[in-house]
Amino acid sequence: MDRGYGYHAELIQRHIELVPGYPGIRDALPELDLGEETLRAILGAAAEFAESRLVPINRAGDLQGCRFEAGRVLTPDCYKNAWEELTSAGWNSVDQPANFGGQGLPLFVNTACRELFDRACMAIGMLTGPTRAGTQVLLQFADPQVQDEWLPQLVAGKWSLTICISEADAGSDVGRIHSQAVQNSEGRWRVTGEKMWTSFGDHDLVERIGHLLLARSPGAPPGTAGLSLFLVPNKVKNSSGEWVVNGVIPRRIEEKLGLHGSPTCAMGFEGAEAYLLGRQHRGLSQMFVMIQSMRLMVATEGVGMSFGAEQAALSYAAERKQGGDPSRPPVAINDHADIQRQLLAMAGRVEVLRGMLYELAVRIDLERHGVAADERHARVTQWLLPIAKASCAEAAFEIPSAAIQVLGGAGYTREWPCEQWLRDARMMSIAEGSTGIQALDLLHRRLWRDDGETLAAFIDTARKELQGVSADLAAPALLVIDRLKRVAQQLLGWRERSRDAETGAVAFLQLAFLAVTGWIAVRLASRAGNDRIGRRLAAAGRYWLSDIDGRAALLERDALAGSAKLDQFHQILNG
């Protein structure tokens, strides 16, 4: 049954402890005391805040939604106090730099807290996530005076940042961005253009909003090579020292399927004063610092919401009475084999996703702190990132859908939270690069670009750990890895047949996901322990492995089927 957010925190902690790299980052930062007791205290406090403060505003915010009045965006009434409590407690600055007022904790700690918070209220996370990711951009590319002005306010939760990329006809195809940045005789930049799909592009929770924005300067080369990165504040001070509007105009907020508490804004920039970040015409590569952080954020959201839905289904199935011997009282529906199958499928998927998430987060920390700075370690991290983003995002929609199936008619109502999770999660496989974009990234940038070296680094890492467990337990995972290697070898020969390869790119991504989660499932099944947490993780891992090679065989076929099956599409178009 659902044991609440405290149980959720315990599961997260066990996963962190199971990651082989965790002792390395703990030992590398002794001044932070990242041992089990400290971690338990942090996650326990985060779980309590999530359950007591964020859960109540989640439903209220969804019902009230955001409003666009007199040219400004107003968030749900219940958000203001919750935001002040969240920022005053430092939950928005867990891994922000200490020299600017943050707590300076590792990324994996922030990821753990975010998972709890995103299960409770993902809409608020749509504000904290871009702000946190944007600070990484400012730390790397902003001038010192911009850092000194902005970072303390961002860390304190007084100001916020957005990721402001998409334009009409230039979403993922960022090379077609039209926004213009012009430098005047005094060296000041001004930006003009229209942006869309900007989360919290305008709102009433902070005093100032900065937009991290891609634009093209006069004479810049076409495509992505001509884009530069700018920080565009919504307010600047005039000659009298008063805050005035900086030509940043919210046009409207979108009416959406879900995330009603998170305003998605269309934004206009009318000669807005801007700061150039980093080098001119290097904007996209610089923005990727933020985009990669946002993709990890989406993966974290996906795990948190998936677990919440799975726990709701588990709780309902233990209480709902139906069926059994008609001469006796009805039994709980979790006594039925098909319900058990559905619950185990959800739990198995959640736990291997969570294991992958913390493997990835700890790996990033090891690189940031110089504990594992070798190229092969970095290659494995880069291999995992698109897989984690895509698979966790897909699960965030599919697991609430599966939970609704267990709850039946009750799950379709607002009495239970699954319907909101399903609505809120639908955007996740679209935002920050759709599933198809992640698949093409894996194919083009992670496989073809380095002739398979990134994949080889992953395979070596996984096999090394699998060698330390029993052959019978490791066998299903190794079979899937072998299938992935065979498919990759054929795809490496298809560079000149890109249409054939791209037709199977999503299947290749899903096969790579099975290889990663097979590795993680063996870890859970072999090392999780025999207490209540360990038994859940071990059962989840074994169930995930039970049919993994059969699923992989289907994906192997689909990944290599080629583009001939698409020929009928042209017949339909021309018919």
UniProtKB/TrEMBL annotation:
Residues 37-158 form the Acyl-CoA dehydrogenase/oxidase N-terminal domain. It holds the Pfam family Acyl-CoA_dh_M. Its cofactor is FAD. One of its GO terms (molecular function) is flavin adenine dinucleotide binding. Residues 163-270 form the Acyl-CoA oxidase/dehydrogenase middle domain. Keywords: FAD, Flavoprotein, Membrane, Oxidoreductase, Transmembrane, Transmembrane helix. Residues 282-442 form the Acyl-CoA dehydrogenase/oxidase C-terminal domain. The chain crosses the membrane at residues 505-526. Belongs to the acyl-CoA dehydrogenase family. This is Acyl-CoA dehydrogenase.
